Automatic annotation (TrEMBL):
It comes from the Bacteria. This is GIY-YIG domain-containing protein. InterPro entries: AAA+_ATPase, GIY-YIG_endonuc, P-loop_NTPase, SLFN_3-like_DNA/RNA_helicase. PROSITE patterns: GIY_YIG. It holds the Pfam family SLFN-g3_helicase. The lineage of its organism: Bacteria, Bacillati, Actinomycetota, Actinomycetes, Micrococcales. Residues 28-113 form the GIY-YIG domain. It comes from Microcella putealis. Gene3D superfamilies: P-loop containing nucleotide triphosphate hydrolases (3.40.50.300). SUPFAM superfamilies: P-loop containing nucleoside triphosphate hydrolases (SSF52540).
Amino acid sequence: MTSSEIPRISFDKSAVRDWAKTDPRHKNWPVVYLLDSAKPAATSTALRDVYVGETLNAEARILQHLDNPDKKRLLSQFRVVLDDRFNKSVCLDLESHLIRLLAGDGTFRVLNRNDGITDANYYERDVYRESFRQVFDQLLKEGVFSRSIPEIENSDLFKLSPYKALTTDQAVAVENIVEGLFDDLEHDRGELLVVQGEPGTGKTVIAIYLMKLLADIAASRPDDEPDADSIFSDFFTDGHRELLREFRVGLVVPQQSLRKSIKRVFKRTPGLAPSQVLTPFQVGASDERWDLLIVDEAHRLNQRANQPSGVQNKQFSDITVKLFGQDDYSKTQLDWIRALSRHQVLLVDPEQSVRPADLPPELLRNLVDEAKDESRHYPLVSQLRVRAGDDYIAWVRQLFSPQLSEGAMRTRPDFGDYELKLFDDLGEMHDAIRERDAQHGLARLVAGYAWEWKSKNDSDAHDIELDGRRLKWNTTATEWIASPNSLEEVGSIHTVQGYDLNYAGVIVGNDLRWDEEHGRLFVDRASYFDKKGKENNPTLGRTYTDDDLLRYICNVYAVLMTRGIRGTFVYVCDPSLKRRLKEV
């Protein structure tokens, strides 16, 4: 394959026409092009803007962009990727490839809509994708990118970007949700929808994608060129735009760390704003209603329970009184959300509830059953995170099931080249994690909450001391995975839930043990140090038994065991449980 040419030309009509005369392919050949803005002054905090497209007639398409006043104002130059062997399929693939990488790099604000991102197969795709690396390298030299592809793909900006090629079940869910939403808006109905999926099926992807898609529909113009390749193109009409006029949308994210990461993405995404990413308390305290609230990790919403601070306890009471006229202890944060929004989309996995304060399992089951009965339930089944696939997720959930008994434990399936390894020495596992981080990035140690957090109040203290290795819990509660010291620390469930790793080194503490006499898992309550994870709920008159606690702790380890894309390393403290795991 010949190497691609990427000329750079001023974004004005005379320059475009002069350039078009130099080669007949500029008017009749499949190409990918980039429109971007000049580099801002060193003192400026503004992001540069970029738009990526593909066309069979570069001159006509770029002149068409010049008729758009917003693009003419924001953009100052264009680049065209020209290759003798390009065809329409290649250009669609390269266009999507560059949009995803640009959004993940963060140097530019990507002006594209997200409904046209594809990941389709075609003849000799692997060969063509090798040439994409040459295109990237040249653009990297010219300052279009600031980081390497592995660095980009390991970043939260990339992983949480709205520019994703959806799987079939994700696309079906999004299409049905948007179609149902517009139908409800036309008939003045309010509805609750449930998207359910196991770890790695892309629930957060759907939440962020939906936010961007609705923003793009609302902001679209009648003269925008429709994307015929998009299954969502029929939504970009005057009627749908009118239905979204002054439409107020919010994304509720219960976890602090994930919420902060998503805000960073929204800050760099046209049509979205960090202020749209909300805590449940921000929703409850608002005097305004939302037209739509999308709730990611909805299983982590709280029922009435002792909150992390006295201020939040008072807030819980005040919000409930404001919304319902009395301090009704039966009301949950989900009730706040339903009271303050016309439409709701909940993204849930009941098996990822990890604290007694989370929504009760019976409430989650009822929500799912009701959504199924009303055809408002959208299951996600395609495994996107863990390369070992669905068999690995099922095996982990069976392995860390409160109902697990000796007779029920099945032999480990074949996970192919997925690297699953049990270690006898924590230092060796930590060293292996360091090696994988050097090779692939995003390799981290994580653990159940089986050690007291001494270093929180004493910076000289260590929290986990095993086999001569001394480690601290995560020293930051937000965006820990990307923090400078994270490779030498241990992340808890509250810092990693919702995130991807390439390799996870999971430390299973003495909070979870194996009873050899009865052949079952059991909880060592004294070795579990998450105070909010085991405290009773006197407000609701609930006392949590060891069996209740076992369910939460098993869920914690199942979540930790499903973070690793390429592999999972495991160290088990309890000798009996370690022996049992070696047998499967």
